Amino acid sequence: MAVDNRPLNIIITIVAVTFAYLVYDYFVAVPSAQSPGADSCLSDSDCPAIYCIRAPCPQSVCENNRCVMTEAPEETPVPTEPIETVRESGGCKIGGCSGQLCSDASEGPMFTTCEWSEAYGCYQELGVCERQEGGKCGWTQTDVLKQCLLEKS
Questions:
Q1: Which among 65, 56, 6 is positioned nearest to 35, based on CA atoms?
Q2: For residues 12-42, b (16+ Cβ closer than 10 Å) or e, as one string?
Q3: What pLDDT, on a 0 to 100 scale, did the predictor assign at position 40?
């Protein structure tokens, strides 16, 4: 009486193909000469995101299939302390950790998270915090400020 080994052969084939795929995926598909590690990458999105309290932050980018840290750009201004009283008029005040808010001085202190946006630099350099037509405090949208914001967005 002959034994039918076809089901066993199918199972062995499936296991062998799965094993071969895993070996390929682990050692060959990763474009590194070494086994893949935490710093292996194919694109910048494979690298860990960096979160920091004060900007500019260094970034992790993919170079030669390895995640490496880049220097923070030097041209980005970094606020060293909260800005509270600069370029204010009409009972309005500038606030927020990065000097990005313009509000009524009678409202008391304003608290924000300390983060940096290139647009905040436009407000620090070119913005005027003053009463607007509706009577509320806000940033006067001059052509120079609008152009700066457009360039930084």
A1: 65
A2: eeeeeeeeeeeeeeeeeebeeeeeeeeebbe
A3: 82
Query: Tokens standing for 40?
Result: 């292996």
Q: Residues 25, 29, 32, 34: is their CA dihedral positive or negative?
A: positive
Per-residue pLDDT of 21-76, as tens digits, reads 666 655 544 444 444 456 788 888 888 776 665 666 777 888 898 888 887 655 55
Query: pLDDT tens digits, residue range 118-141?
Result: 888 898 888 899 999 999 999 999
Q: Give CA separation, 121 vs 6, 69, 89, 136, in Å.
A: 72, 24, 19, 22
Strands (E), the chain: 60-63, 66-69, 92-95, 101-104, 129-131, 137-139
Estimate the crossing angle of helix 118-126 against helix 143-152, to 10 degrees: 160
